[in-house]
Design brief:
With 433 residues, the chain is α/β, with parallel strands linked by helices. 38% of the residues lie in helices and 24% in strands. The protein has helices at 50-56, 94-107, 112-128, 142-155, 179-193, 213-225, 239-248, 255-260, 279-288, 296-301, 309-315, 333-346, 353-367, 393-399, 405-415, and strands at 3-13, 29-40, 43-49, 61-72, 74-80, 131-137, 159-162, 164-165, 199-205, 230-235, 269-273, 291-294, 318-321, 384-387, 421-426, 429-432. It binds guanine and zinc ion.
């Protein structure tokens, strides 16, 4: 089998950079100013110094990325591929944004050709931005799920996704199912896609306001039958939404309780947003090991609020990073890290670049229960991104003054976009650059 040796700067996490606070964050990473990543059969087989690897593997084909920074590919823990066409739609908050922009667009996915087209566009945008894994909501149409997984398989990408379920009258005609059809169609899609190639199925009730209790119950039962699937939904994104939920579920103690009542909580749950949590909700998320997908560009764009990343991490919550496109305003995980930094600043904490990079890679991969991605380590799948840390004049003039790798990478985190992604590899195959 052919070996490929990537050369450049390398940065690999050896521990969780949140464990001991921002000042100790750099100690969680191993940096090599001239490193190498050796790939064979789609996997990383060694990470070490460039010269040592060259000497040991003279037969390997060389991909010399010069000063490029080699990292694991970015992992987006929550997004909506069907909303690619309505990204950056002006002027509305969550409920009006869903009714005015999102639902009309999602109706178009009753056309499988349209779904295939948008899936291809979205995955190509992701790869151009160095994102090698996406966790996506699809629409109510099973063909939208087929389109997503087929497009990912064609690109060799590890992805997660599922059919979005909505059976309450709050969802419009044409985007409504029933408890039974949500169960049946999700079950058939699990049989078709879960574990096929690099696909993971995520059981996907959109959120409590668009599902009846009967549907939440049916999807809780389905998850109990398929506990190795993920379960994704939305939680406590806007205060108006929470009031709406409490009006619809008068017996529930809080928003999270509407999911818990039907078994929709656990280690493989990924709750999007989770901004306005009660103490009880935070405690339950931590106790159950549920994941939270932080979606910072969405939270500012739709005006949702300031996610308490520092507080939730201190409480022991599991958190990953996500674009939430098209509620989020960018396909770039660099821009998403920048927004996470800005929101944490407004909360009084400066996240270290190591913490931001970890959230966008290993942090999100942990939410997906995929230890084979998000890490630059022997045995991991060779999904990689190479960053140019001088991709624009503005970034370059700042990075030139850097005294260490963190100062060198931070301008790219704050100001970079797809121009900073000089190469993307999926399972060892170059797909950009
Ligand atoms: N809550 C329920 N559905 C959605 C969605 O599509 N986007 C966002 N941001 N929040 C939601
Ligand atoms: Zn979302």
């Amino acid at each position: 089998m052919e070996k490929l040796l990537l050369l450049g700067q390398t940065l690999a996490f050896t521990a969780d950079p949140f464990a001991n606070g921002p000042d100790a964050a750099p100690e969680a990473a191993r940096y090599d100013s001239r490193g190498g990543v050796l790939v064979e059969g789609g996997r990383i087989i060694a990470v070490a110094g460039a010269e040592a690897l060259r000497a040991e593997h003279p037969d390997a084909q060389i991909a010399d990325h010069g000063q490029g920074l080699i990292l694991p590919g970015f992992v987006d823990a929550h997004m909506h591929y069907p909303q690619t066409g309505i990204v950056a739609s002006w002027g509305k908050r969550l409920i009006d944004w869903l009714n005015g922009y999102t639902f009309p667009e999602e109706m178009r996915f009753d056309n499988p050709a349209y779904a295939s087209d948008v899936a291809a566009t979205t995955l190509d945008l992701a790869l151009a931005n160095g994102t090698t894994t996406l966790t996506s909501y699809c629409t109510i149409h099973p063909a939208s799920v087929d389109a997503f997984f087929a497009a990912a398989a064609a690109r060799g990408m590890r992805v997660a996704g599922g059919r979005t379920c909505m059976d309450r009258e709050t969802a419009p005609d044409g985007l409504r199912d029933t408890a039974q059809s949500a169960y049946d169609e999700s079950k058939a899609l699990i049989a078709r896609w879960h574990g096929r190639g690099r696909a993971t199925y995520a059981i996907t009730p959109r959120f409590s306001p668009t599902s009846t209790e009967a549907q939440l119950e049916a999807l809780g039962a389905l998850w109990a039958e398929h506990p190795d699937c993920l379960m994704q939904t939305h939680l406590a994104e806007q205060t108006d939404e929470i009031e709406w939920v409490m009006g619809m579920y008068p017996g529930a103690e809080d928003y999270l309780a509407t999911y818990e009542a039907h078994g929709l909580i656990g280690e493989r749950a990924i709750f999007g947003h989770a901004i306005h949590l009660t103490e009880r909700e935070t405690a339950r998320l931590v106790e159950t090991g549920a994941g939270i997908a932080h979606c910072p560009t969405s939270n500012t764009f739709i005006g949702s609020g300031l996610f308490d990343l520092p507080g939730l991490r201190a409480a022991g919550a599991r958190i990953g990073l996500a674009t939430d496109t098209g509620g989020g305003s960018s396909f770039s995980m660099l821009r998403t890290m920048a927004a996470a930094y800005e929101i944490a600043q407004l909360r009084g904490t400066a996240l270290h670049p190591a913490q931001l990079l970890w959230l966008a890679t290993e942090g999100s991969a942990r939410l997906l229960h995929q230890p084979g991605i998000g890490r630059l380590v022997e045995g991991a799948e060779a999904d990689l991104v190479v960053l140019d840390l001088a991709s624009t004049p503005a970034i370059s003039q700042r990075a030139r003054r850097a005294e260490d790798i963190w100062e060198a990478v931070f301008p790219t985190i704050m100001m970079g976009d797809d121009r900073a992604v000089s190469a993307t590899y999926v399972a060892g195959q170059k797909v950009k650059g």
